[in-house]
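Section 5.1 Outputs to date
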Amino acid sequence: MSKIVPFVLVILIVVYLSLCGFSAVDLSAYGLAGQELTIRSVTPVATNADGSLVLDVEGGGFTDDVRVFSHFDVNNRAAIVGSFPIDGMVFDMEKTGDILFVASLVDGLRAFDVSDPLKPVMLPNKYSSNTIYLDIERRGQEFFFSCGGQGVRTAKLSNRGSLKDWKTLPSFSTAVDTAVVGSKLYVAASKAGMLVYDLDQLENYQPLARYEAEQSLRQVEVYERYLYAVYGRDGVWVYRLDEQGLPVKIATLPAKRYVRSITIVEDKLYLLENNRLAKFDLKRPEEPALIAEQNHFSAPQRLYSFGGRVYVADNHSGLGIVNMVDGKLEETASFLNLGGDSRAAVMVDGLLYVGVAKKGINIIDPQKIKPRQVVKTLESTGLVRDFRLLGGYGFIVDSVDGVSYQSLDGPPKRMRLPESEGHVYKTSFITSSQNLFFVSSHNAPFKVFDASDAATLELIAEFEGLRGNPVIQDDYLLLATGATGFELWDISDYASPKRLDSIDDVLATQIAVKNDLLFVAGEREGVGIYRILEGRLKFLSQVQLPFPLSPFSISLKCVVRGNTLFVANGDAGLMIVDVKNPQKPKVLNSLRLPGQASDLMVEGDRVYLLSRYYGLHTIDISNLRNPRLLDSLHLSDVWRGMQRWEDLFYLGNRFMGVTAIPFPEEIKSVHRVSSKKLRITVPKPKYPGRYSLQIGNTKGTVDVEGVVSFP
């Protein structure tokens, strides 16, 4: 009986959705991908006279409706050679012999046999899952675990590979990191500061010394007889260890903003704060000397170094990889999209294990990591908030320079808009309409430029007190102002703009316009539909998802084409709505996809959906009730901004500027030999480089990463 109830419930849900106008596909998310399609091998067969490459692909599940796409291999997905599941966030990993200890949020501490690094096996030893293990430190056969508010737990490794002789040392706050030198244990105890334990005298389970500070202590690292303590906004404090092993503060390495992590390799210290990675020389350990720095990272969390490379775990970018050349950091970083947040990495027999939240552990072959591959980059000094391509120029709003612009085809010379001087930190949005260019700032007047000649914009108007995400419709200016709703302005006379109406009970992130209809995207509130009627805003309807589908996520962008509204709906992916009758909108489909949908562009029968934490999805919308995922291109650190310019796709890449790549292309020459074999002819592309394939049918898609290269 218990097995029948869930089945009956599913049938009832399907019937209910059918009555609401949904097709059965609405219940299916992207989870079907990979269940039927498989790839076993890809073999080059021949190179034709026109430069095209013939491949034989063997696997399974190749049906008559199979389609193949190719895209630029930007972010090293081919370097991921395996994975295994771990629930929750992985905080740290430590290898000893053939045993790997993994500290995670859900499972606590688990052990794996990694004698075959591509096929790790979970061992039966299970330690308390009621304890959070945040950090693992080892001294020979002794282990030290930072366990948050439960203090520091110590244990010894038995001959059978299990842990025994457990002890718990108090931390008086949250123990987050440890370091061991000789008989001394140094504990980063967050708000309690730094604790020092003598491991030879633990009878009373009390620290030998305690060092307090205003900021919480995040991390401790030791080099020779010096200890480096990370205090966030207070930077890195440098201590000398005296004869008893007690720290004596001798210097401070100040923070520009907030130091998140450090690592020490030989006589070099690497420091990570916000988007900055800096390298210091420790030849004089008491006076670290800056050697090099770079700014490529968006939300960095943790720093590692293995085999001459520095690895940066970044929430938005995935894994950043920086080579050291002639003792210095490379000016550019490579990236590997992980599809989630990361806090832990360890080297296992030449392979890199990286923990990824909610996904497990990815196994990476460092030998397969290639430089980041793009056709062109429009550089920015700070984080890209918005951009527009206009008249052969790229206009970028970033967090440092305000509005800057540069030629799309000329030398990479960046110029700043003089009118943004003094307001660079608060410029937030730009838009264009015909030959006009609009700049919205939080702490400066709203500006209108004549863009007839994009190289020399001419300021023609300023409006005081206007700010928000702008949209122009004829003589109307609409401003999405976030938590304060949105506003309607008449700007037919630049000398005296008039505020006509406003709606202040919604959280408006963006507005799409069709004639006199407004489609207002809002956080958690979905999409509201309004009409401009005699200079007033009239509410018509709210797009609602029927039970039991998930409620709205974060509706960050919407685009209307004809009678159809397309919504980038955060974690819920793409939503397609029939708005022929704007008073009764009808959701045709809600397609859940990997990542967090944040921006989209509609061209013909395709939607290009930008997805934070994942990349760029290409979706076939020739059947609006049954959209089909065609291609997914992994990209690091994308968030907002996408535009076509000729045959290149320009994407906002946060601290990496604006990236230009070729559009994903469908391969037409696909011969289905059997359900287990395809013969594919990949045409020679305009832009040389590495290309990946994505093979799919109505059941799902399979990635074949970095499989072909064109010189």
